[in-house]
Specification:
heterodimer; A: about 240 residues; alpha+beta; four-stranded antiparallel beta sheet; 8 helices; about 30% helix; B: about 190 residues; mainly alpha; Rna Polymerase Sigma Factor, Chain: A; Arc Repressor Mutant, subunit A; 9 helices
Chain lengths: ~240, ~190
């Protein structure tokens, strides 16, 4: 972590960075648990400073706000938590993932054509990935994450699954996406994705095993160091 | 609520549990949303007024904040902080966005001079006096430069770059003072609670 970047936590916490700087700092936060904690605390202090300014709004505003909310759809819970958990050294993967998997997946159903996968934007998925998406019995799903869209395909017939990660935001040189399988709350690395445009395919994991993607320091990690941006139960796809 | 401002003292840290309310809002509970509005609208609107100045724009910001809270309540993660802080963080970001979007040109006139917290609206304020006192006392523990940096950024919506220009100080100095100032405020409030 660069000391220079770290000192931006104060400015970040009170929205005093330009949009570009804030974006950079957000990327930095993904890999820095101490920074996230600090930002959280500084925001709380700032919020209390802000609350001192409290002034009752005009009474008519309330009806306006309630009526507007009444016309507005709510977003579903997020699958994504780029948050590192350090409690007692043991990550609480299982319960979070179970909830995530239940909420996550928009099933598209049926195979997606190669054109859609390879995309008009020149992405180059590995052949093994395309094969799963194109399988006769392919089941596919799209999951929104904080880093972009991930497509998942499973082919029970082939006994394979694949992830199309080409919709994920490219990371800086110091970070990579890493795919994990999680059985009984224990993650094991499936593959590090230096180039998300290529996606990844793998054997269909055993029932009850979940597949997750995290952002890791370049080269990948032995164990996940951040919360997954996405977690799916392949059996649910 | 807003009928008789000043008569209703809202204590910030006991009474309504904002975290619980947000959890209910996440499940589409309109009544909880109304309670949340009653609990936090003065804080949100007051901050918006302070940052954007124009009362009708502050109302728009307030509406946008509560709609964002309504839409995103299911995404609020209590392990990342308190719901009250979450709402105020949204409020601040939206207020600052409003200022940056529309007032870049006018800013040199209307925001050019560092604005002191005006205490003359005290009758309108609905925050508990002791909380206000604690925050004020803690702000006084900041050095002048720390305080000025934090205030210009937080209440005027300046970037740290702009603050540095305005105060004619090197960028790294302002960056550091902003952080040190907030850390001091945090530590002081932590001790005062």
């Amino acid at each position: 972590m660069s000391t220079d970047l770290h000192t931006l936590s104060g400015a970040f916490a009170i929205d005093a960075l330009t949009a570009e700087e804030a974006e950079q700092f957000r990327t930095h936060l993904e890999g820095c648990a101490a920074c996230r904690e600090e930002v959280r605390e500084l925001r709380e202090a700032a919020a209390r400073m802000g609350e001192v300014e409290a002034v009752a709004p005009p009474a008519a505003l309330k009806a306006r706000v309630l009526a507007a909310a009444d016309r507005t759809a709510q977003q579903p819970p997020k699958v994504v938590r780029l948050e590192e958990r350090e409690d007692s050294g043991r990550r609480r993967w299982a319960p979070r993932l179970a909830a995530a998997a239940a909420a996550a997946v928009v099933v598209v159903g049926g195979a997606i054509g190669i054109g859609q996968i390879a995309g008009d934007d020149g992405t180059t998925l590995q052949a093994g990935v395309v094969r799963v998406f194109e399988a006769e019995d392919a089941r596919t799903a799209e999951v929104d994450t904080s880093q972009g869209v991930v497509r998942v395909a499973t082919s029970p017939g082939r006994g394979e699954m694949a992830v199309d990660t080409s919709g994920l935001r490219p990371l800086d040189e110091e970070h990579v996406y890493q795919v994990w399988s999680i059985a009984d709350g224990t993650p094991s690395s499936v593959v590090v994705l230096p180039d998300p445009d290529r996606g990844a395919s793998m054997e269909m994991p055993a029932a009850g095993t979940q597949v997750a993607i995290t952002v890791e320091p370049a080269g990948g990690s032995e164990q996940p160091t951040t919360e997954p941006i996405v977690a799916v139960d392949p059996g649910e796809v | 609520m807003a009928g008789e401002p000043g008569l209703r003292l809202v204590t910030s840290y006991d009474g309504v549990d904002v975290d619980v309310l947000v959890g209910r809002v996440a499940r589409g509970d309109g009544q909880a949303f109304e309670q949340l509005y009653d609990e936090l609208s003065a804080a949100v609107y007051g901050l918006a007024r302070r940052v954007v100045r124009d009362p009708s724009r502050a109302e728009d910001v307030t509406q946008d904040v509560f709609l964002e809270v309504w839409r995103k309540a299911a995404r609020f993660d209590s392990t990342l902080g308190r719901a009250r802080t979450w709402v105020m963080t949204i409020a601040h970001r939206r207020a600052v966005d409003a200022v940056r979007r529309n007032e870049a040109a006018k800013r040199s006139d209307s925001h050019g001079v560092p604005d002191e917290v005006s205490h003359d609206e005290a009758a309108d304020r609905v925050i508990a006096a002791e909380e206000r006192g604690a925050v004020r006392d803690c702000l006084e523990t900041l050095t002048e430069l720390q305080l000025e940096s934090v205030r210009l950024a937080y209440f005027n919506g300046y970037t740290y770059n702009e603050v540095a220009t305005l105060l004619d100080k090197p960028l790294p100095t302002i960056k550091t003072r902003m952080r040190d100032g907030l850390i001091r405020l945090r530590d002081c409030l932590e001790g005062a609670r």
